[in-house]
């Protein structure tokens, strides 16, 4: 009986411990999602602050482009008002603002003096940097939201999320088709059926002979075989005269 009570107590303790650990993990993930969203919000506010200076700069060179300037102004106003809503509503407003800015920069291409203006170039550079930071923050935020929502849907963490009141967060997505479109690769300039050029022959380099430490390697030179000269036959020799026996005088020469 005592053993059974101990087993039940241990099981209940493990269940309570897992509940506490999972609940604390939900708290950390929820705070991480909120923090990553605040980083995006800061960059969005920075872009909203740069747009009025950009409009005033363009007005000095392209006063007749009132329609484009008005579209940018209205898109900025809608984007600022959408900050009171959720990420999905803000994403739609920011996408519209991004498209209107693209139209403004397209109009600026027709004004060389505006394109060479230092203030315009600096504002364009700051907006480009802000867009890069917004894109990086969006990827970080969506990754945290994906992990957070997955835990809410999975069991048994879904039971804890329901008890603690955790709900799924919205993604901050880009709906601009120009951003989502893939890069087109054109191979039409290549001539079909053209044979490939033969590679140039690689010169054969003799291997280097290893030298003692501190000396450069010596490249072996091809050994030249000596030219063999034809062998001349020896001249005919006259037989030597016979020698007389020991103690006798040789006969006189005729």
Structure keywords:
single chain; mainly alpha; two-stranded antiparallel ribbon; rod-shaped
Write the layout of secondary structure elements.
Elements: H1 2-59, H2 66-81, H3 87-108, H4 112-115, H5 118-153, H6 157-164, H7 177-180, E1 208-209, E2 218-219
Antiparallel strand pairs: 1-2
Protein model, in words:
With 254 residues, the chain is mainly α. 58% of the residues lie in helices and 2% in strands. The chain is built from seven helices and two strands, in the order αααααααββ. The protein has helices at 2-59, 66-81, 87-108, 112-115, 118-153, 157-164, 177-180, and strands at residues 208-209, 218-219. It has a two-stranded antiparallel ribbon with strand order 1-2. A hairpin with an 8-residue loop joins strand 1 (208-209) and strand 2 (218-219). Helix 1 runs antiparallel to helix 5, helix 1 (2-59) packs across helix 6 and helix 2 (66-81) packs antiparallel against helix 3 (87-108).
* Global Rg: 46 Å
Helix content estimate: 55-70%
Side by side, the strands of the main sheet go: 1-2
Report the major sheet.
Answer: 2 strands, antiparallel
Report the sheet-strand fraction: under 5%
Low-confidence stretches: 179-194
User: Kindly, what is the distance between the CA atoms of the first and last residues, rounded to a whole number of angstroms?
Assistant: 152 Å
Work out the number of β strands.
Answer: 2
Q: What oligomeric state is this?
A: single chain
Order of helices and strands: HHHHHHHEE
Taken from the alpha-carbon principal axes, the silhouette is rod-shaped
Average pLDDT number: 77
Secondary structure category: mainly alpha
Tally of contiguous helical segments: 7
């Amino acid at each position: 009986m005592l053993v059974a009570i101990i087993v039940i107590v241990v099981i209940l303790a493990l269940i309570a411990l897992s509940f506490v650990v999972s609940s604390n993990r939900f708290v950390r993930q929820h705070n991480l999602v909120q923090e990553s969203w605040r980083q995006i919000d800061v960059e969005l506010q920075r872009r909203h602050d740069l747009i009025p200076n950009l409009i005033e700069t363009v007005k000095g060179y392209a006063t007749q482009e009132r329609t484009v300037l008005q579209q940018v102004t209205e898109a900025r106003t809608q984007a600022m008002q959408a900050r009171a809503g959720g990420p999905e509503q803000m994403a739609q407003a920011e996408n519209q603002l991004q498209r209107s800015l693209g139209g403004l920069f397209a109009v600026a291409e027709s004004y060389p003096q505006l394109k060479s203006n230092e203030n315009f170039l600096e504002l364009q550079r700051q907006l480009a940097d802000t867009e890069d930071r917004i894109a990086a923050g969006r990827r970080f935020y969506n990754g945290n939201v994906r992990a957070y929502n997955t835990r809410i849907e999975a069991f048994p963490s879904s039971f804890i999320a329901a008890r603690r009141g955790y709900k799924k967060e919205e993604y901050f997505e880009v709906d601009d088709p120009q951003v989502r479109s893939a890069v087109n690769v054109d191979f039409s300039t290549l001539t079909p059926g053209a044979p490939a050029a033969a590679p140039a022959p690689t010169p054969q380099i003799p291997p280097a002979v290893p030298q003692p430490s501190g000396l450069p390697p010596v490249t072996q030179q091809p050994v030249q075989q000596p030219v063999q000269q034809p062998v001349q036959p020896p001249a005919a020799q006259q037989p030597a005269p016979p020698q007389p026996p020991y103690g006798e005088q040789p006969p006189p020469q005729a």
